[in-house]
Amino acid sequence: MTELLSHAEYKAIAAELDPPRAPFIDGRFQAGRGPKMQTINPATGDVICEIATCSAEDVDLAVARARATFDEGHWAKMHPADRKAVLIKLAKLIQRNARELAVMESLDSGKPILDCATIDVPETVNTIEWHAEAIDKIYDQTAPAGDDAIAMIVREPIGVVAAILPWNFPLMMLAWKIGPALAAGCSVIVKPAEQTSLTALRVAELAMEAGIPRGVLQVLPGDGPSVGEPLGMHMDVDMVSFTGSTETGRRFLRYAADSNLKKTVLECGGKNPAVVLEDAENLGHVAAHVVSAAFWNMGENCSAASRLIVHEGVKDELLDHITAQMREWKTGDPLDPQNHLGALIDAEHCSKVASYLKGEALVGGTQDGPYVMPTVYELNKDDPRAREEIFGPILSVLTVGSDEEAIASANDTDYGLAASVFTANTRRALRAARAIRAGTVTVNCYGEGDIATPFGGYKQSGFGGRDNGIHAHDQYTELKTIWVDLSDPNDADSLT
User: Fold this and answer.
1) pLDDT digits over 336-348, tens only?
2) Which of 32, 213, 317, 440 has the fewest CB atoms within 10 Å, i.e. is most exposed?
3) Which residues are catalytic?
4) Pick from 9, 85, 42: which is nearest to 198 by CA?
5) What is the Cα–Cα distance from 204 to 286, expressed in whole angstroms?
6) pTM of the predicted model, to two decimals?
7) Can you tell me the distance from the alpha carbon of 229 to that of 90, in angstroms, rounded to the nearest whole number?
């Protein structure tokens, strides 16, 4: 387990940070043609640094370098074992700089250092290592073709990939995308969220140190119109992998349709249910999972369980447990490892989340500057707080009277990313898990699986592919059929 430092020690590291301040293009930091952009500490409002952003011209340069490097084969045609060695070295360099990256992530995003140090950085390392180790263990196939032919089915890297990152998990989402994309042999251009560019830029620098060739991994900070749209519309970008809001995801589908029909993979929003049936055991245990599911990362999580759908027979007892356990979830300075919850990403988002604080709350319901306290409301199913993705620490409680009503309520949403079911009966659990339309359903726990299991959603939560596991590699490769005719050309029957 990662050893945590004291609040004072983390503040000392923060004071000594020298964050990157420019785009990373063609193997080096270089001045972007866009305006300077302030990176703000959400917890204090202080300016961390100013970053030179990119313009459409910078996008063209980065894409040209990515394409040239891909076509030259410096990375794409490298032996898989050699690519693996480079990515393993990158993972080790990230681990070596873990404290710097954790503090940088916390300052940039408002995430608690507790999570950055014990979850985000270790999972980033694990993700890159896992995909690195998979490189030389993914086999191509042959298909039955009779004695007169050989049919080979081979994977080839898709080419130039644009990876569009969200601001809620900057490091982890970077790893989810570059891990399989680089393993496959692609050239990757990363557009971090405007609010959280620092760790992606630092990892790009470490990637060069690890031996990734120039032009293979580039990071372009900037806003959507200046960087995101030019990447989405670029005729020489082969694929976009996007994580973010459903609204922005729709834009990238339009960009693909209006340009070169580039492959587009979307991982979007969610309004995820935690379903607690009447026979659920150990309600204290259930409450712990519900609290974590609803409030981890300040609820700024696409897979957050923001809807508790609970049977009327166990509701009161469960809510008592939830209320008691919420007292342990402290909110405050993200650099204090005693705090479980930090600041929301920026003032605009904080104001949006706070606008949902209406009426009498069972717990919470208040705002303190950049902090929104964990909040629980009992609501009816038509309340906007029970239907809209809030992306903050607000849990909506919906009461049901049967399994059928619970499943119907769980599916009564435009989204289908994740869900949880709590019950003591295996048959009930599996029937519910099969009936709920979501990409991941956990039973008697909250989670997203792990690096070996695919992650993505149904309906408006996702489109085009899955992150994590072997299935992630499918996104970044094309399948090619090679048919070899083995028949004797002198045989008259060979052409019939």
Assistant:
1) 999 999 999 999 9
2) 317
3) 267, 302
4) 42
5) 41
6) 0.95
7) 29
